[in-house]
Amino acid sequence: MARTVAIIVGSVRKDSINLKLAKALVKLAPSDFDCDFVRIDDLPVYNQDLDRSPPESVSRTKSQIAAAKALLFVTPEHNRSLPTALKNVLDWVSRPYGKNLWAGKPAGIAGASIGAIGTAVAQAHLRSVLGYLDVPTLGQPEVYIHFSQGLIDEHGNISNETTKNFLQTFMNRYAAWISEYN
Ligand code: FNR
């Protein structure tokens, strides 16, 4: 049976390097993965007043997360933390109180940056938030991609063999690890 994996890209930018990385990871996923990209660019700013009757975009996102067996976050770093759009979807899907739909779903984390430390600080902050949301996270290997021009194209093709082998190792480990939860 197919395993539905929700892919949450922390960038809403059309030419996002993290979207390229996410597409590369999807290409390296085992054949029983059903990868479902979660749209986050049309979610309004989180507002607790709307918890009980959320806008359609929020309901759609919640349904996607509820249907997923596992999560894969692929995110940039913004000002040494996770991007606003990513924190926003984490907040929406965690509420109303007592109905946190993230809970118990195993998550992998990866990120790409044009900077030298490749999203390490953003990922540390994300792990902290996910811990509170009762989301177990894969510890190793950590995926901090220092993105150089042409490393991954818009279809997810990887030009560097070492990077490709490393991402394949990550994907294999992630696929085996989430089996412990499903
Ligand atoms: C950045 N960038 C960045 N990079 C980094 O390594 N650490 C950081 O703290 C930041 N901060 C930051 C803030 C803001 C507001 C922007 C727009 C950018 C640079 C970042 O790595 C680069 O823009 C990537 O291309 C972002 O990823 P996407 O959107 O292409 O996936």
From TrEMBL:
Domain of life: Bacteria
A Pfam family the protein falls into: FMN_red
GO molecular function: FMN binding; oxidoreductase activity
Gene Ontology, cellular component aspect: cytosol
InterPro entries tied to this protein: Flavoprotein-like_sf, FMN_Rdtase-like_dom, NAD(P)H-dep_reductase
Domain NADPH-dependent FMN reductase-like, first and last residues per copy: 5-148
Record-given protein name: NADPH-dependent FMN reductase
